[in-house]
Amino acid sequence: MSATQSEYLRPKDLRAALEHKAATPDARFIAGGTDLLVHARRPGATLPQSLISLRAVAELNEVTVVGATLRIGAAAPLTEVARHPVIAERLPALVASIDVLGSRQIRNVATLGGNLCNASPAADTAPPLLVHDARVELQHVGGRREVPLVEFFRGPGETAIEANEVMTAVLLELPPPNAEAAFERKGRVRMDLAIAIVAGLFELDGSVVRRARVAAGAVAPLPLRLTEVEERLTGSELDDDVIAEARRLTTEAISPISDLRSSADYRRHLTGVFVERMLHGVAGSSVTGRPGA
Amino acid sequence: MKRTIKLRINGSEHELAVPANALLLDVLRNDLHLVGTKRGCDMGTCGCCNIIIDGRAVNSCLVLAFDVEGRDIQTIEGVTASADDDSIHPLQEAWAECGGSQCGFCAAGFIMTVHALLENEPQPNRAGIAEALGGNVCRCTGYKKILDAVELAAGRMAATT
User: Fold this and answer.
1) What's the rounded Cα separation, in Å, for the pair B25 and B44?
2) What was the ipTM of the complex prediction?
3) What is the pLDDT of residues B82-111, one digit of tens each?
4) What pLDDT, on the 0 to 100 scale, is given for residue A51?
5) Residue B115 class from Cβ within 10 Å (0-12 exposed, 13-18 middle, 19+ buried)?
6) Does B66 sit within 8 Å of A53, measured CB to CB?
7) B90-159 is classed in which CATH architecture?
8) Fewest CB atoms less than 10 Å from the CB: which of A256, B8, B17, B44?
9) Gap between the Cα atoms of B156 and B61, Å rounded
């Protein structure tokens, strides 16, 4: 194959996809294509000479549950992910993040792995997956490894994925039934990228927080866990003072930029409000016998 | 470098040679002359190029033709009241009655999105219709007439089934 000829492959199994990649190092993997095909048509850009489609690889399109471990094939379309009965029931924050990602026709083809590999700081599915301690499975022709999602993102558009690897799955442990998940997001209009995203997962004992996980997106160079906030909340009673402090720690932990969508100040304010709102919601729902509290 | 692919569109099989990197939108319009599908933003934002693949609305500007071999593809040309003739579909009828299109450029994309919606959810409420149409842009109507048309058609279609 000469360098000027384009080659597009559509393997039916992962082995063949990985072998194609090993034989053609310049080839790009394409799953839904909703980012790749848009970027390829920017002025001066072109489609990669060689593409390996993952759409026909059955094992990358499946969602499976083994014990408490959920495995989402990296090339599973977001619509299918959100509709999976276990995900629909047990992972409301992830479902909420998918429901606001792009349009219906985008979600019908865009994939969970693609949303993560594109590594936008504003990736909608990243904060909920971060609070679930998700890991990503990366494979190449000679092996596989798992990387915690929190270590996968390296910067805008940059990830831990090596040139010869492909993301094959997103893995996470299903949360205990009493865990409470939350998702907050704001974009200018329905279809636009988020200007701030917050996700949380909380386990409470009465009104005392036993375990807290909080993540934010679109307010730093990468989606991030807010560990200072989590540490402050753990072991604390969710009263107004603690919630106010969590809000303050949130605004200190993030590093938003100003761009055409929002000023940095507004992003910072909004993220604090989201954390406060989320914690008030969790505090309210955990108090029994005091309706409206 | 061209390659030969087989596409099933509106129930008919088409075998054609296209460049490896051909977009489905270009194949539909330029090779098969199915020009009811429109090119709007060319970046998956406006919904003018929406078609239905395996029952789901999809932006045809974001799909490579070689990647949909063997799938069931439907374009606006395949939207008719009955499979036997080319009579007007209730959605198209309602669009005309309600003034759902003015310049008409976006109408095919809207109708394909709604067609897929009603297959899965025959009686959506107005908020559900608006949500489903979040990725379709109309620069003429202000959307009210479009929502009216969908409600009218959905009501009629439910009454006749």
Assistant:
1) 11
2) 0.92
3) 777 778 999 999 999 999 999 999 999 999
4) 94
5) buried
6) yes
7) Orthogonal Bundle (1.10)
8) B17
9) 32
